[in-house]
Fold this protein.
Amino acid sequence: MNYDHLKQKLLKRKQEIEQEFEQNDQFGLERGFASDMSSGELSQYDNHPADSGTELYEREKDIALKGHLEEELSDIKYSLQQMQKGTYGTCEVTGKQIPIERLEALPTARTTKEASPNQQISDDRPVEEEVLTSMEEEYYTGSDETEYNEQNTYQEVASFNENSMTYEDSSIIDNQDGVGYVEEYEQFVSTGIDGYTGDENIHFQRNVQYDQYMNEQENIDEEENNQ
């Protein structure tokens, strides 16, 4: 069978990948992996953690893209070698001829579709999903107003940290925190439809949470006065 058109397709893709590596200097990974070198900063001391996180994400993405292209380039070179040997288009598992339709779609295919090792679809899910699912069950109250609405996600996830983060005890969940609220006062403080328009337009709902909050503040004031 004549595979000249597939050979030209492979050679063109090989040239594209090699040019991409050359133009972007191997995705900038040749400059080293130190965060200050990759970001162009002389020091990371005064940088916000989010900035460093962004730089780390970009470096990880570059590594993944580089690895993907290197694997594709290796497959292309292997297919070109098979063409020279005259074994291209033969399934390496069954010895059968690989359908031309499969080779048109995937010129680097080494097996037939039935013999491909990539048949099983992984059902692995991130471990975070198990945590979030348990949180939804824990916070569910049967009410649309107070059911879990993701505002407490940070506290739940941060509870797994061994060290505090950006401020003291930021990784510790306040067990008295209201369901669905980040701050305690959010349970009884409200504004109009336009949001915050001044202190005079803030309303306090005289509910159970308000009473609990005020009692806690009074106890704190008493303790400070007795010291």
User: Anything to note?
Assistant: The first helix runs from residue 4 to 23. The mean pLDDT is 76. The radius of gyration is 30 Å. The helical segments are 4-23, 35-39, 49-85, 100-105, 127-139, 153-158, 208-226.
